[in-house]
Structure formats: structure tokens, C-alpha cells
Design goal:
This is Glycosaminoglycan attachment site. This protein starts with a helix and ends in a 14-residue tail after the last strand. The protein is built from 14 helices and 14 strands. It is α+β, with helices and mostly antiparallel strands and about 475 residues long.
Length: about 475
């Protein structure tokens, strides 16, 4: 059966590539297949969820076809003939399973959906020079930057440089900060690639907040990037040490995250709100946590506490519990649930991710690593995977969360970050409940590890 699939895929690619607009034909072919598959077996309906297409992308696609796709010499009719033969020989369920498998191979070949990686290299008028040597002592270089400099990690440097392609060096200090403090600059570069993937151009003529972007619908947003960092008397995230107890770990995360959001909120009130290009537009805080060793293990637990004052009791069947405060320095109570009142009404939404790390960079290379990850599923709950890097796939946007403030003065347009793999959170003020709109097969966590097959003994960067 695999040989049949391989031959069918090969012939389909030949047919598609013979068309003048082959990429458009390939995409339309896939969308039509998904449009038909949504009426198929339970197995097929679930399989298409893993392809990372929104229903609105493909519903009705069959009605928008043209001859290059659906004509006698098009890919659609070729696949119909194969499916018909399989149906008569082996039955409907087998035919449907083979057909959707063929479609996935086409999706993979043309890098659509779950397999999309933007390889376009963009050029800025004043580009960043992230990996050019600076006149500073080696001891000042951040450990993560030193990891990227290793000779075997040249593919990682290439990916980061591609993310940064088109980023304008506005202040002549970005390169230095990337090499010495790293995390905040890395987070901005990650976000910049997100905006490129979302077709949201950045207006670099505006120096602050960090990003002024235009949505595909022509609306303007202002986005301020910030990281939650370790306290001056605590261990930085690159130190290998035992993780705190669950309660202490999450409490510390909450304190540092709340501190970062509050600082940007105060900055908005003091200065950003007075800028003409900010007035009357949604103001979004984009936050990544790097506040302690194994920070990535918090997933969405800490941010849910900070924004909504809710948590889970892992010792009581994961029952939902109220978490109204976090304790700073073990004694000073800080109010959580900042999106459950109008106190932060100036913040339209919060963008958050624990997966925007060097691990994300690794997944966009062919470096021999093992990737352990967890994914969400609407019926099955948590899906755990352990794959080699060559067969692990996630998009650049996978793992990104957008939390909408119900009290926002200027609401973030829902369509601004409308991608299958981006999880949106909405809080219902009347019921006090969170509407978590995460979709099946999207990323929760990811942890790169030394490759078992390649005999990779290095542990640098593991888990980050």
C-alpha cells in the first residue's frame, strides 16, 4: 500500500508542477480535498485537524475550483480515479484512509499548513549583524549566545538570521543586547518572524512601542515586547538545578510575570499613551517567561493565574481552584486576575509563549535531535510524542497564545492572529469562566534532547 501511495504522490506532483501556477493549483487541490474530507469517516475528520488548516480556509473550496485543478488533466480527477479503484477493491474505509494520506504527502511537499516554514530571506536598509564580533569581553557573552556560536550550531545561526531578515536596527544597540542579555532580543526576533508569517508588516519608522504593525485588514496595532526575567537574588534560567516544588515554581513565575506586565502598563500610562500613533489603537503586551530554570514547564498555568486568578489542584483530580494572590518574597501578597477587572483596561491583549526558545530554532533545522513534545486534543486530552527532529513538525506560530482582555478600551480584532495553531483565550465576566479555544494537535510543550540515534552527547541548550 505504501508503494501505491508513493507512486500516486509522485504522479500528483508531476501533474501539479506542469501547471502554470503550480503553487496555487497545489493549494486549491488540498483545500478541495479537505472540503470533501470533512464529510468523511471519523478517522479522516480527525486526521485533517492535524494539518493546521482552519475550516474557513477550505469550506466551500470545491465550489471555487477551475480546470487546472479539477479538469480531466488535473490532480483532482487523477486522485478520484485512484480512490474509486481502491473503493471497489478494498472498501470505503481503506480508500478514505489512503486518500487522506496522499493528501498529507502533498501538504508536506508544498509546505502548507503544519509543515509551513517561511524560508524567504528579507533585507533591511539597516540590517542587524547578530553574529558579527563585538568589542566586548567574551565573559560578557550570554550563555545562550555562546551556544549558538558553536561550530556545529551554524544551522541554528542561519535560522535566527532568517527570522531577523528585514528587522531594522533602529537604536544601534540591538546586536550588543542580543549577544550579552539575549532573551529579550531573541523574543523580539521571534515575534518579528511571527508578524511576517501573519502578513503583518512592521512600521520601523515608529521607535516605540517595539512594534507598530498593520493587520491584513488594514488595522493598526501597537505591540510592546517584554520578558519575565530572574530576580537579582535568584538563579537564571540557564543554570542546571533541581526545579522548585510545584507551588513555589508557579508562585515565582506569577510574581515575575506580573512584575513584567505591570512595568509595561505603567510605561504605557506614562509615555506610550501620549504618542499619536498609539492613541485610539489596541495596545498589546507580548510576554515570554525566562524567569527561572525549567521555566518552560509552566506551559499556561502561571499566565492563567496572573490574568484570571484561576489554577488547578493537581492533587485533587486537576480540579479548578481560585488563585487570587501570589506571594512576593514569601510574604507580600500580589493580586492576580488582572483581566478580571478594569484595572488594566489599557492592555487590549497579551501574547504569550513558553515555546519560543532555541528549541523552536532547532525544529527548523535538520540537526539530529530527539524532540519530546505534548499536544492538545479535544477528545483525547494530552498527546505525548517522542520523535527525531526529521519527523517532528511544528510551525513558527505553534505554541503561541493570545489572551483577550474583556475590559479593554480598544479590543484586539479577532482576525489579527487568526491561525489554526494560535490559541485564543476569552474571559466571560458574568460567569467567571475562561473560553480556551485551543485546537486539536497544537503544541503545548516541546523539549529537544540529545539524539539517541546519532550518539549526541551534548546537553547544551537541552530543554530551552
Amino acid at each position: 500500500m505504501q508503494e501505491l501511495i508513493n507512486q500516486a504522490v509522485k504522479r500528483l506532483i508531476e501533474i501539479i508542477d506542469s501547471k502554470v501556477s503550480s503553487q496555487k493549483v497545489a493549494l486549491q487541490f488540498v483545500l478541495e480535498e479537505l472540503d470533501a474530507a470533512r464529510h468523511g469517516t471519523e478517522f479522516v475528520r480527525d486526521r485533517i485537524k492535524s494539518f493546521y488548516f482552519k475550516e474557513s480556509d477550505y469550506v466551500g473550496a470545491m465550489e471555487r475550483s477551475w480546470a487546472d485543478v479539477d479538469g480531466d488533466s488535473g490532480p483532482q480527477q487523477f486522485l478520484v480515479r485512484i480512490t474509486t479503484e481502491l473503493f471497489h477493491a478494498l472498501g470505503g474505509d481503506v480508500a478514505a484512509a489512503v486518500r487522506i494520506s496522499i493528501v498529507e504527502y502533498i501538504i508536506h511537499h508544498y509546505r502548507f499548513g503544519r509543515y509551513y516554514i517561511d524560508q524567504k530571506v528579507r533585507v533591511a536598509s539597516k540590517p542587524l549583524k547578530l553574529f558579527e564580533a563585538l568589542a566586548c569581553e567574551e565573559s560578557l557573552l550570554h550563555p545562550h549566545y555562546q551556544y549558538l556560536l558553536k561550530s556545529e550550531n551554524a544551522p541554528l545561526r542561519d535560522v535566527v538570521a532568517r527570522w531577523a531578515g528585514g528587522f531594522e536596527d533602529r537604536d544601534n544597540k540591538f546586536n550588543y543586547e542580543f549577544q550579552t542579555t539575549f532573551n529579550s532580543s531573541f523574543w523580539e526576533i521571534y515575534l518579528f518572524q511571527c508578524f511576517k508569517d501573519l502578513d503583518m508588516p512592521v512600521d520601523f519608522s515608529k521607535s516605540s512601542p517595539d512594534f507598530t504593525v498593520a493587520t491584513p485588514a488594514g488595522e493598526s496595532l501597537v505591540i510592546e515586547a517584554v520578558t519575565a526575567n530572574h530576580a537579582h537574588d535568584s538563579s537564571p534560567e540557564w543554570i542546571a538545578e533541581d526545579i522548585k516544588s510545584d507551588g513555589d515554581f508557579l508562585n515565582f513565575s506569577c510574581v515575575r510575570i506580573l512584575n513584567a506586565i505591570d512595568a509595561k502598563h505603567k510605561k504605557f500610562l506614562k509615555s506610550y499613551s501620549k504618542l499619536e500613533h498609539v492613541k485610539g489603537r489596541p495596545f498589546v503586551v507580548a510576554l515570554a517567561p525566562f524567569e527561572q530554570p525549567k521555566f518552560f514547564m509552566q506551559n499556561n498555568e502561571a499566565i492563567i493565574r496572573v490574568l484570571y486568578g484561576q489554577g488547578i489542584d493537581k492533587n485533587n483530580g486537576f480540579a479548578e481552584v481560585s488563585t487570587p494572590v501570589a506571594l512576593k518574597n514569601g510574604s507580600i501578597p500580589l493580586d492576580l486576575g488582572i483581566f478580571t477587572s478594569s484595572k488594566y483596561k489599557e492592555v487590549s491583549a497579551l501574547i504569550f509563549s513558553t515555546t519560543a526558545t532555541i528549541g523552536k530554532v532547532i525544529t527548523q533545522t535538520s540537526l539530529p535531535k530527539d524532540i519530546r513534545c505534548s499536544r492538545y486534543h479535544e477528545q483525547r486530552g494530552l498527546i505525548l510524542e517522542l520523535r527525531d527532529n526529521a519527523t517532528h513538525f511544528e510551525t513558527h506560530l505553534d505554541g503561541l497564545q493570545v489572551h483577550h482582555n474583556p475590559y479593554a478600551e480598544y479590543r484586539l480584532p479577532e482576525e489579527a492572529f487568526d491561525r489554526y495553531e494560535i490559541t485564543h483565550y476569552y474571559y466571560d465576566v458574568l460567569s467567571g469562566t475562561i473560553d480556551n479555544q485551543q485546537k486539536s494537535y497544537t503544541l503545548i510543550s516541546r523539549n529537544p534532547m540529545p539524539s539517541s540515534s546519532a550518539g549526541d552527547a551534548s546537553v547544551d541548550g537541552e530543554g530551552y
